[in-house]
């Protein structure tokens, strides 16, 4: 998602989430997707609270339908965001926040069974590679 601390707003987050569902021809509240954020917010409570509330507003049908909400971050902030979401929103269950993963739009992830009392999950990232320009040739 193109949400960074420099351009964050609740409206911008909702727009980006809606666009992500449209790009993949999916419906919010019906289909399960993971939302990936690169450096989206500052780590102080003000921004975490705003971010949590914006997530709740961006995914109302998913929350109402008790769909799994999967948020992934490139930085070590999954635990903080998860705590803020549970503290600041109605989202109390069906939430996984993962961090320190490097993904690209369209990557598929497999999440294994939880380890360490649900505090860690093994993850496999599957990227589809379409070679636009082949720099070498096979003989």
Summary tags:
single chain, 139 residues, alpha/beta, 3-stranded parallel β-sheet, two-stranded antiparallel sheet, 4 helices, 5 strands, 15% strand, globular, disordered C terminus
SSE arrangement:
Blueprint: H1 10-23, E1 34-37, H2 45-58, H3 60-64, E2 69-73, H4 78-88, E3 95-98, E4 108-111, E5 123-126
Parallel strand pairs: 1-2, 2-3
Antiparallel strand pairs: 4-5
Helix pairs in contact: 1-2, 2-4
Describe this structure in words.
The structure is a single chain. The chain is of the alpha/beta class and 139 residues long. It has one domain (10-126). Helices cover 32% and strands 15% of the residues. The protein has 4 helices and 5 strands; from the N terminus they run αβααβαβββ. The strands form 2 sheets. It has a 3-stranded parallel sheet with strand order 1-2-3, covered by helices on one side. The protein has a two-stranded antiparallel sheet with strand order 4-5. α1 crosses α2 and α2 (45-58) crosses α4 (78-88). The longest helix is centred in the first third of the chain and has 14 residues, at 10-23. The N and C termini lie far apart (41 Å). The model is unreliable at 131-139 (pLDDT under 50).
First and last CA, distance: 41 Å
Question: What structural class do the secondary elements suggest?
Answer: alpha/beta
Strand arrangement, major sheet: 1-2-3
What number of structural domains do the residues give? 1
Radius of gyration: 16 Å
- Low-pLDDT windows of residues: 131-139
Mean pLDDT: 83
Proportion of strand residues: 15-25%
Assembly state of the chains shown = single chain
Order of helices and strands: HEHHEHEEE
Q: Tell me the overall shape.
A: globular
State the helicity in percent bands.
25-40%
Number of helices: 4
Report on the biggest sheet.
3 strands, parallel
